[in-house]
Amino acid sequence: MPIKIPDSLPATAILESENIFVMTEYRAMHQDIRPLNVLILNLMPTKEVTETQLLRKLSNTPLQIKVEFLQTASYQSQHASAEHMKSFYTTFEKVKNRWFDGMIITGAPLAFVDYEDVDYWQELCAIMEWSKTHVHSTMHICWGALAGLYYHYGIPKIEYAEKLSGVYPNRVLKKSSPLFRGFDDIFMAPHSREVGITAEDVAKVPELELIADSDAGGPTILKTTDSKHFFALCHLEYDWDTLKLEYERDLEKGIHPHVPVNYFPDDDPAQRPIVRWRSAGQLLFSNWLNYYVYQTTPYDIGNKFEKQ
User: Which of 134, 140, 152, 235 is catalytic?
Assistant: First the structure.
């Protein structure tokens, strides 16, 4: 089944060239099946790259999904054109009276900025609070996960001695979780962050379950016991060259980063990186959509929340 996106979104042509089933708005209008409504708050500076990465992961399921992109009104993107943002993004003011089956909050390059000092922190807090009563299940990714854990549960971030950059082995701690259906006991996942959280702080919150971790970075994936919020500190949506581009960017800045772990053959940046996480990434998003959104969201989602 297809993913439903705007006809002229740049990602459409890329996904179609990869033989991914994309349904345009025109074609979807002639079907009676209700699509899952998924809202993506894209906080990454590389808007179009992140759009394509996430749409690629959301597309390979037997479900029709209507995706909308959300931007912050309190901070304007410096790396995406105004035309692109106007054409494909909405604001919280325009969606706050609606309900969504699923929501994704992306990462952002804000590791060393205190949460309260983030330009759009108050708006992000308002959106996360709104998600409690207007979104059936929310997936938070990397910095979005750290921000969500801090806002909802007061879990602080900790700084690492050096940036965690590479493709690391991660343990599935709760093998019975539908989120990990089809996963190996150990799965590889890209990590790209300078901060994280501790398992000790997670254990203090009874509403949270730590369901995957790594030796290198500690907690990797968490969820709430009611499955309303998921927090992934890894980047299973990354393209084959995302870490490569980040490494080259840091080199140009004179940061002198170490070569991403388990990424380039023989740790040689001149060689093409090896993808070790593609299947795990597809499973993560497909399982979240199927078991925690589609299987449990009511047909009339607005009626569900209005009765609460």
Answer: 235
